[in-house]
């Protein structure tokens, strides 16, 4: 991204001037060039779930809690042998996924703040760069591990992700799929009816 490009371009025309009405009940953003309007949490230019679908309130850890958790987890993973002891590639993948999701959320939070009232570009660009790097790290890990832990519809090398914002959209797809699987697993464990009548269920509570 060069310095004369907007940090939050219009997803339709790429124009730099955007009118944000973020303090309304249903926050929205409008482009004063092409006049199109979109929800502050929608992502009209990329595939996969938008911010509301990927990180719904009530089913997503508070960002600040998640960042602290990831910080201590990273310290653990840096200990020799720790990644292997904690589940190897699968644990590493979960860390990369949650780290990329947290950076995606933080960057989006700053993008909305910046639209409302522009502040130092450097901190926004820094957050965007961190989110992009973490997203690409997840894609690389998923390619190296032959997509063993990918659960979304589109794989890490799909052409849909090869656009601006694409890697971060991949993170949202994978985070949503990972959360859905975890919730299904929790429900299967707490529901007494799921595994009765001689039915065999798999790890996620699905009937085999
Ligand atoms: Zn526009």
Protein model, in words:
The chain is mainly alpha-helical and 208 residues long. The protein has a domain at 49-190. Helix content is 49%, strand content 5%. Strands 1-2-3 form a 3-stranded antiparallel sheet, covered by helices on one side. The N and C termini lie far apart (49 Å). The structure holds zinc ion. Zinc ion (ZN) is lined by residues 10, 12-13, 15, 31, 33-34, 36.
> What does the overall shape look like?
globular
What proportion strand? 5-15%
* Alpha-carbon distance between the two ends: 49 Å
Can you count the beta strands? 3
Number of helices: 6
Overall SS class: mainly alpha
Low-confidence stretches: none
Main sheet? 3 strands, antiparallel
Quick structural gist:
The protein is mainly alpha-helical. It is 49% helix and 5% strand. It is globular, with a radius of gyration of 19 Å.
What are the defining features of this structure?
three-stranded antiparallel beta sheet; 3 strands; 5% strand; globular; binds zinc ion
Would you spell out the secondary-structure blueprint of this structure?
Elements: E1 18-21, E2 28-31, E3 37-39, H1 51-54, H2 63-77, H3 82-85, H4 88-116, H5 121-144, H6 166-190
Antiparallel strand pairs: 1-2, 2-3
Helix pairs in contact: 2-4, 4-5, 4-6, 5-6
The structure holds zinc ion.
Zinc ion (ZN) is lined by residues 10, 12-13, 15, 31, 33-34, 36.
């Amino acid at each position: 991204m060069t310095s004369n490009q907007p940090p939050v371009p219009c997803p339709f025309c790429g124009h730099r001037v955007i009118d944000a009405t973020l303090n309304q009940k249903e926050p929205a953003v409008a482009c004063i060039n092409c006049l199109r309007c979109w929800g502050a949490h929608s992502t009209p230019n990329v595939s996969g779930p938008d911010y509301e679908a990927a990180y719904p309130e009530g089913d997503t850890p508070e960002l600040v809690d998640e960042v602290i958790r990831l910080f201590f987890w990273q310290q653990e993973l840096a200990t020799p042998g720790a990644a292997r002891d904690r589940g190897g590639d699968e644990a590493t993948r979960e860390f990369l996924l949650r780290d990329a999701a947290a950076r995606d959320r933080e960057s989006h939070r700053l993008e909305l703040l910046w639209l409302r009232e522009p502040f130092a570009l450097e901190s926004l660009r820094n957050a965007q760069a961190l989110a992009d790097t973490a997203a690409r790290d997840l894609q690389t890990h998923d390619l190296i591990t032959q997509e063993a832990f990918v659960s979304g519809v589109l794989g890490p090398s799909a052409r849909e992700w090869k656009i601006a914002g694409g890697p971060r959209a991949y993170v949202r797809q994978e985070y949503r799929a990972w959360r859905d699987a975890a919730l299904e697993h929790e429900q299967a464990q707490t529901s007494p009816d799921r595994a009765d009548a001689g039915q065999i269920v798999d790890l996620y509570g699905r009937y085999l």
